[in-house]
Amino acid sequence: MPRSPLFTGYDESVDILDQAEKEAGQYFSNATKAQKAAFDAACARNTELNWPLSPVWERNRNAAKAAWVVATAEARVLYDRTIVELLAGGVTDELSEAWSALERVRTASALQAAE
Question: What b/e readout covers 74-100, taking b as 16+ CB neighbours within 10 angstroms?
Fold first, then answer.
């Protein structure tokens, strides 16, 4: 009995979801480069100044993680929307523009902070 061309098996569905998450992750990474650099710098600075796994180290690490969550909140919302749209057939122009706008805002903020 031939399979319906509309049927996708479990493995194929997992592959499709993995690819959508990977592509959405690329958008996310591009839009959050400055925030990732700040998080990495805070973690490196913390490790230089404090004994790993000490209470002070843990507090500083948790503060860096909390700052990351706040700084990337908009990008996480767009990430989720991107996965949904990719699974539905592709990223809309509206969502693509939302990513571009977020990147422009982040770049402008990073330039102002560097001044």
Answer: ebeebbebbbebbeeeebeeebeebbe
Contact between residue 57 and residue 47 where contact means Cβ atoms under 8 Å apart: yes
Query: In angstroms, rounded to a whole number, what is the distance separating the alpha carbons of residues 34 and 43?
Result: 14
pTM (two decimals) = 0.82
pLDDT at 108 exceeding the cut of 90? no
Specify burial of residue 103 (Cβ count, 10 A radius: 0-12, 13-18, 19+): middle
Q: Distance from first CA to last CA of the chain, Å, rounded?
A: 68
Least Cα distance to 25 among 100, 63, 80 occurs for 80
pLDDT in tens, 62-107: 999 999 999 999 999 999 999 999 999 999 999 999 999 998 888 7
